[in-house]
Amino acid sequence: MSDIEDDLEHMVEEGEEKAHRVDDELDMTPMVDVTFLLLIFFMITAAFALQKALEVPPVDEDQAAASQTIDDLEKDSIVIRIDEDNIFWVGSPMWGEEQKAPSVQEMRSKVREARGGEGGKMGKGPTKMLVQAHGGAMYEFAVAALDAGADIQMPEVRFMIYEDGDL
């Protein structure tokens, strides 16, 4: 054999060895790194909304169920009524009749006044609040009324939905 044939044969053998040495596996490390970087990015940039919650006391099954009428509840409670037109009506045992509050800000100031919060002092007025929302009222107005009770640290808040003719 000639030297050229030996070289060609040797090159073919080396090429076959190189072809066999190539890995068919894909390196996953960069993909895992990118995945974790994206995860960290979205965790940092996500806007977390603070959830406000009202504490609901557990039901004591040993006590008999005491049924109270709406009139009984209204006697010693601040009442926020939301009509079907989303207008607030705020009532207090200290007042003779309900007062109209067409905006959320006015409702909040009337609730603060009904609680006895002149000058930032709370606690002189009723300690219970009843929110009566019409079935056609928008949800955001009911939430605003409940938030008004939470803002003045009302210890007991009740919520009810009524339809035309119920009250």
Instruction: State the CATH class of the largest domain.
Output: Alpha Beta
H/I helix tally: 5
**Distance between the first and last residues' Cα:** 113 Å
What percentage of residues falls in helices of 4 or more residues? 40-55%
Shape: rod-shaped
Tell me what the CATH architecture of the largest domain is: 2-Layer Sandwich
GO molecular function, one term: transmembrane transporter activity
Keywords: Cell membrane, Membrane, Protein transport, Transmembrane, Transmembrane helix, Transport
Pfam families: ExbD
Family: Belongs to the ExbD/TolR family.
Structure description:
There is one protein chain. The protein is built from 5 helices and 5 strands; from the N terminus they run αααβββαβαβ. It folds into 2 domains: 43 residues, no CATH class; 93 residues, Nucleotidyltransferase, domain 5 (2-Layer Sandwich). The longest helix has 19 residues. Helices cover 40% and strands 16% of the residues. The protein has a 5-stranded mixed β-sheet with strand order 3-2-1-4-5. It has 167 residues and is of the alpha/beta class.
